[in-house]
Amino acid sequence: MAAVEVEGLRKVYGDVTAVDGLDLTIDDGEVVALLGPNGAGKTTVVEILEGYRRRDAGTVRVLGTDPETGGREFRERIGVVLQEAGFEELFTPRELVRLHAGYYPRPRAVDEVLVLTGLEEKADARVRTLSGGQRRRLDLALGIVGRPEMLFLDEPTTGFDPSARRRAWELVDRLRDLGATILLTTHYLDEAEHLADRVVVVDHGRVVAAGTPAELATAAGLAPVISFRLPPGTGLGELPSLGVDRRQVGDLVEVRTRSATADVAALASWALGRGVELADLALVRPSLEDVYLDLVGERAGGPVT
Ligand SMILES: Nc1ncnc2c1ncn2[C@@H]1O[C@H](COP(=O)(O)OP(=O)(O)OP(=O)(O)O)[C@@H](O)[C@H]1O
User: Fold this and answer.
1) Strand order in 181-185's β-sheet?
2) Phi and psi at residue 188, in whole multiples of 5°?
3) Which residues cross the membrane (predicted)?
4) ipTM above 0.90, yes or no
5) 182 near 4, Cβ under 8 Å?
6) Closest ligand 1 atom to the C-alpha of 43?
7) Cα distance between residue 10 and residue 16, in whole Å
């Protein structure tokens, strides 16, 4: 059974159409990353799936239930990490995790949650003394304490230092191994690439692409790149004819290729024939960032017109 089934979802705020006929299916146990520029509609979609926001049209099933009418029983089966949550500043993480554990029928042990989220050292400090990243870890702790079958993470690692981000990734990997279905939104493409089985790119409230990063690269027609440094004293014109387009920055040459094996072979035999070394020779497949920018990049982050 699919954990999430969405068809024709629409949400309008005044004259802004935030979600505009969105379809989405997430399989049981799958980790899916929702990507898209600011204002694309990601948070609105996630909040509708969580049952925190009403839709204007479309059908939505999460764990077989309509979130709008699922009530307490539904909420006990999901975990939610919102973009911004407020805490009781005078409580400690241990107290808050214990309090939230009481809301669920089969909670995780409080100590286990504190360890999983790396909050052991701050377990008994008042929340108002926690750093931004530590508060975000507390958000995560409260999201997983109920042992959710489906976990929603809205920009879960914003504000994390690199080692905290790695730990959060390990936590998501563990939760996946334990069988949770996870939907996360993120602006970190390396995070999506690392964590997600599948990415779904949303723009203007619709899905514009979905698949594994490799599938998206293929669908976008993006070719891999051969890169190397020009041997000293060699001109670009002396190279064999390679690839579909090439560019040079300093002595670094990048060749986009649709026939990687043949082009690498031609380049290598050219270098061997001349007895020169091709420093930093590499074949790089398009990154998720290349694919993303190809799909929505021209508008995202560009000047407002
Ligand atoms: N409560 C609201 N009232 C009015 N408009 C809203 C409301 N919430 C969101 N919007 C608008 O709906 C659109 C989608 O917003 P949403 O927050 O879902 O996007 P997002 O993809 O999550 O963006 P971000 O990456 O910046 O978090 C935006 O144009 C936003 O201004």
Assistant:
1) 78-81, 150-154, 181-185, 31-35, 198-203, 206-211
2) -95, 110
3) none
4) yes
5) no
6) 22
7) 11
Among 38, 152, 204, 208, residue to substitute to test ligand 1 (most atoms within 8 Å of Cβ): 38
Which residue did the predictor score with more confidence, 88 or 16? Answer: 16
Diameter over CA atoms, the chain: 73
Q: What is the pLDDT of residues 154-193, one digit of tens each?
A: 898 888 888 888 888 988 988 888 889 999 999 998 899 8
Element (H, E) at 266: helix 260-274
Exposed, middle or buried: residue 254 (CB in 10 Å: 0-12, 13-18, 19+)?
A: middle
* Residue minimizing CA distance to atom 12 of ligand 1: 18
Decide: 43 in ligand 1 pocket, CB within 6 A.
yes
Instruction: State residue 265 phi and psi, 5-degree precision.
Output: -65, -45
- Judged by DSSP in three states, 62 sits in strand
21-76 confidence digits (pLDDT tens): 999 999 999 999 999 999 999 999 999 999 999 999 999 999 999 999 999 999 99
Residue 13 CB less than 6 A away from ligand 1: yes
- Cα–Cα distance for residue pair 37/3, rounded to 1 Å: 25
Sign of CA dihedral 45, 46, 50, 51: negative
